């Protein structure tokens, strides 16, 4: 299922790619200094400097030694044996959105354009560009999971890719929603693309790798760490054009992803829930602060991320009532008819502010339409016409 | 319990009051033309014009005749016998907020400053000025009712009055929440203040009338009509400084109240709910459109309507984690420790981007703090430090 990395050789020199492999193995995901050096000077120059112990900015310890111990060609072959390709800037499938990470807030101590991404699965990364991230708490409710599943399915049915982090709770619900609609989905991991975290999701991840993509900035074989989770969140935001937070307790990692999405000028969206539900607290905070737009389902999401006018949502309008089909004058009479106790014609006429004769003929029409009732004491509504 | 209307005689001449009584009995609540004439020319002039059949703008049929058949002094006495007083502009308890109705959108075909308000109960109307309207669907859920009750109770405990419409569902929950906290509450009706609509709430309304106020623009004895409901909604909005919509299906009357609140430059607030819940649809529409601010409870409401800084809400922050008490360097090391499978010190050092010795002493500290575990294969987190 995987593609040979050499498929993109025409645009990226092998030295460049191998230097990136080595640096990807050496550096931590989201190491802003390293990523900035690689983006600015190119991987080959950085690699050369580091191996010749020109430790550019006191960046790392014993770096030269460790770099020399690496065998990037062998790494690539081993990765390929596990169905993993290494996608780097300049490759045809390199997603342009990742380059936005270059300009993101330099005061932040993590970030930058990744040196490369390890990818397992047939889905091309550049196909994620119009995609939507659906993220949220691991401690989710069945409500949240059901909404995440629906949003991912709806987004997938229009051909956009649902992206998430393969965690318990909302993440897995999003992946499953996409898969259930027969669409590929992308899981961005905080560990190597060959590993399964959480372990309970190894079948899910293998399935995603056969139809979609399992993506990681972390080199194959490496376990997840907190740094890697935080760095991973920026990729989920950068790879897509919008992030939906379905449920997130205060301080949830999903809020970190939403934060990155906002910083990268992506669309940030939040699904509300009961105010009594802890996993919705973080989302309500996002919505209150104005950092996220409220969405109630896939249609709202598509309207916000879609090309203009492409997915316009029809406002829910409630049932059309028989009242709506009346003339303005008949409506006016109807509005003057008592709700509960019946009243005589002249009382209705006064309430409606109209003449007696006019009101009498209107009442006959309304009676034929089944909207008013007539008894000994006069007229009353046949059904409640207000809420 | 009621006050004698003559208690305010020093400021409003009796002719003025009696003219208003007659006009209140003659005209429909929210009759914009009538209300504007009374505001601009004064009730005595309008009354004189109408009785002398100078039908100013083709306003009403056989008006002079009907006005002459009225006995406003008797009306006042009869009202007083039922514990109802008639509050008019110029009375000490006349709520200044109602005068804002004068300037509200003149293109709208209903509105205007009411000719007077019929009030049953000891609560002074001017005490509603800082109050909060809590409104919503009659077809509410237990979730919505519980939130409405809590908000009304919380608002009441700070001395602000909760105002609503005494309908089934959210309205009654709001009144009960206020009463449960030992505070008065005001119910604004679409029928006469002596009547109970819905009939099932007659005990509730009688209770409100003993500690708070039952208020209506509709003269005593008259039944509710759709026109009177819509006119009533503008009063709920105008009498308070903010309106909270708790649950409202699309086209709910509560949205009409919210609309009036916005037009009158009051604070408009909405409580979100599950996106799968029909009674929350209308609220989500309000929130999406930006017409309302999202509130999750009484504290949020108080922050938005309160005097600046008076009721500032502390953002929910989630539990303080032991991680937060670490030095920045120790946090950096902790962030490099694998989540699941253990790793040797040099791997942690590399992940943290720090020197071996430094990492070793940090790991000892973290171990003593119970944050990391140490086994044969190396170090791992003692507890998950991410979500």
TrEMBL record, chains A, B:
Pfam entry (one): DNA_processg_A
InterPro entries in UniProt: DprA (IPR003488), DrpA_SLOG (IPR057666)
UniProt superkingdom: Bacteria
Signal sequence segment: none
SUPFAM superfamilies registered for this protein in UniProt: MCP/YpsA-like
Limits of the Smf/DprA SLOG domain: 86-304
Family classification: Belongs to the DprA/Smf family.
Alphabetized NCBIfam families for the sequence: dprA
Name of this chain's protein: DNA-processing protein DprA
Species this chain originates from: Nocardioides kribbensis
């Amino acid at each position: 299922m995987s593609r040979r990395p050499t498929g993109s050789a025409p645009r990226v020199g092998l030295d460049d790619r191998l230097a990136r492999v080595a640096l990807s193995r050496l550096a931590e995901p989201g190491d802003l200094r390293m990523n900035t050096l690689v983006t600015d000077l190119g991987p080959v120059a950085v690699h050369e400097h580091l191996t010749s112990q020109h430790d550019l900015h006191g960046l790392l310890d014993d770096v030269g030694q460790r770099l020399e111990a690496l065998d990037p060609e062998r790494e690539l072959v081993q990765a390929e044996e596990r169905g993993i390709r290494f996608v780097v800037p300049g490759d045809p499938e390199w997603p342009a959105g990742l380059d936005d990470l270059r300009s993101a807030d330099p005061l932040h101590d993590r970030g930058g354009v990744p040196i490369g991404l390890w990818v397992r699965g047939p889905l091309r990364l550049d196909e994620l560009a119009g995609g939507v991230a659906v993220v949220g708490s691991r401690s989710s409710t069945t409500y949240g999971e059901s909404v995440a599943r629906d949003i991912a399915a709806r987004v997938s049915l229009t051909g956009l890719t649902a992206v998430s982090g393969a965690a318990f709770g909302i993440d897995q619900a999003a992946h499953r929603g996409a898969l259930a609609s027969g669409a590929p989905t992308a899981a961005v991991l905080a560990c190597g693309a060959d590993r399964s975290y959480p372990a309970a999701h190894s079948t899910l991840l293998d399935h995603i790798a056969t139809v979609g993509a399992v993506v990681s900035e972390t080199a194959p074989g490496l376990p997840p760490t907190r740094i890697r989770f935080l760095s991973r969140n920026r990729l989920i935001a950068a790879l897509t054009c919008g992030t939906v937070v379905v449920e997130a307790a205060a301080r949830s990692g999903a809020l970190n992803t939403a934060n990155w999405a906002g910083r990268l000028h992506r669309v940030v969206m939040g699904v509300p829930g009961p105010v009594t539900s802890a996993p919705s607290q973080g989302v309500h905070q996002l919505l209150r602060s104005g950092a996220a737009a409220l969405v109630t389902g896939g249609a709202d999401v598509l309207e916000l991320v879609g090309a203009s006018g492409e997915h316009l949502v029809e406002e829910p309008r409630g049932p059309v009532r028989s009242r709506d089909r009346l003339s303005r004058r008949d409506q006016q009479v109807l509005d003057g008819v008592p709700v509960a106790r019946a009243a005589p014609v002249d009382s209705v006429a006064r309430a409606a502010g109209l003449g007696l004769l006019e009101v009498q003929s209107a009442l006959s029409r309304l009676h034929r339409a089944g909207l008013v009732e007539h008894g000994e004491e006069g007229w009353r509504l046949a059904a409640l016409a207000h809420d």
